[in-house]
Each structure stands twice: as structure tokens, then as C-alpha cells.
Write a structure and sequence with these properties.
single chain; 300 residues; alpha+beta; Barwin-like endoglucanases; three-stranded antiparallel beta sheet; 11 strands
Amino acid sequence: MTFSTRLAARALTAVLGASLVSGAVLTAGGAASADSGEGRKVMLKGSTTASYYWDDASGRNGDTGLPASGKPMQKGLAASPSWPLLTEGYVLYKGRKAPFFVGDRGPGEPSNRGVMLDLDAKTFAQLTGGEFNPDTLAVDGNGGKGHIKVTYVITKWGKGVGKKNHPVPFETRAWSRKDRDPAEPVLLRAPAKPAAPASPAEPPAAEPPAAGTPPQAGPPVPSAPSAPAAPEPGKPQEKAAPSAARTPAPAVLEADPVSASGEERPSMPTGLVFALLLAAGAGSYAVVRFLSARLIRERG
């Protein structure tokens, strides 16, 4: 193998290696962002108290029949007192995440007391570390939890009637009206880290009295301010610079509203970046092959 061929092979290896590493890093970063939800536009975010139920139309647990959407009871099917049916989203509880879709109506009277979401029993068991009991349709082994405080995120609104905003009690009948003024989407952001409080300055230590001097009793008497020195004749007097008070920086919000038309700054998809990197690698390979063949012809 000639020197030019070895040089071309090394250059090609370096270019393709850089392209593959960059593509892997970008793909991993995109997957991490999608998992955390950071930087993604959603329809709504809030918090509420959630209960659970399992409506299998058997009447064993006081249910009234199949869910209102007509879909069979299943894991991920939740009931809302006001959101449109087939609305999609997920809930967060103590670091755990579970998807749901609205397939039923409820809670009824408990929604007047702030219980605005009825999760299915299997999802509730997953979030609380319990186990679904198919005989009693209840959740066992979670310490008796029947209500939990969750964060909800709506990713897609249903197309039917219902309120496309923070939930309201069932008795308002918002579930039966078409919402003409939905909530503005929000952009999820990581919470800002609070600034560390500044430690107060320690007062200077008092000097010990000289030998033979009796200690001073009581608080020290402040000295009288000295009079300003008289200006010298013929010399301009300097002005003291006024001290400016600093204004504290404004707090950063966790979620910024964006326009419903999606006019936020567009971001380049990860797949497109990866394709461009591969194209650049292929172009470099072609250039190296061309130069290598030319050197071989010149030396031959």
C-alpha cells in the first residue's frame, strides 16, 4: 500500500468516525429531551388530586356501565369531569410517569372538593407501588392510598365537546359544551435553580485594649463625621460618584406561553442533522478517493 493510499484511508476513517459520533450524540440528546419533556410544546400543564376506579360494567363496584367513550375499560383510560373525550396526556407522581386518555366522565360529587381526575386502578397501582386486585377492583399494598396529588400534562385535545382548559367540577356541565376559547399551549422548561443566598458579612473583631488601659463600658460611641477639606484655590473640586442601587434579576418561569400558531423559533430535526453529517462524510470520502487516484496516476 502506497503512502498516498494509507493517507487517504486514515482521512476517510477520521471523517466517518466523526460523523457517526456526532449523529449518536445528537440522537441521544433528542431522546433525553423527549423523555423529560423539556423544550416541547404541550396543550396544558397543571396539578390536581386524582382518585381511581375500574368500571367493567359488572356492577360489583357500583359502576353504571361501560365508559362514556364506548371503549372498554383498560389501563390508561381515565375519567375527567370537563375535558373532551379522547383527550391525551400523562401524569407525574413522585418521579413516575404514566400516560392516559379521557374515556369516561367523572368524578362526580368529589370534583366539587378538588378531585378532578379519576385514573384507572391499574395505572394508580403503578404510580403508588401497589397491586391491582381483580376480585375487588381495588388497589392493594400501597399503604391505603386512595387519593394522590399529581401533575397533569395534556398533549392533545379531543375533538368533541368539553372544556379545553384546567378542569372544573362535573356539575358545571362544561363537558356538554363546545369550547371556543381553549387554553394557550405552553412550552415545558426545566425549573431554574435557586440562587444561593449571600452570606452576611461578619463584623470585624474588636482589637484588645492596650496594656494598662481599663476596658470601655457600654457600646462604642460613634465618632463625629469629619468636615470636608477646604478646596485649594485654583484647583477644581472632584465630584463623588453616586452609588447605584442594583435591581434584582426577575424570576424565570417554568413554562412560557407560546402562540397557538406555533410561531416559536423552529428547531432543526435530529434526523436532518444526522443526514447532513452522513452526506458530508460521503462527500469527503469521494474527495479523498479522487485525490488518491490522481496521486497514483501522477506517480505511475
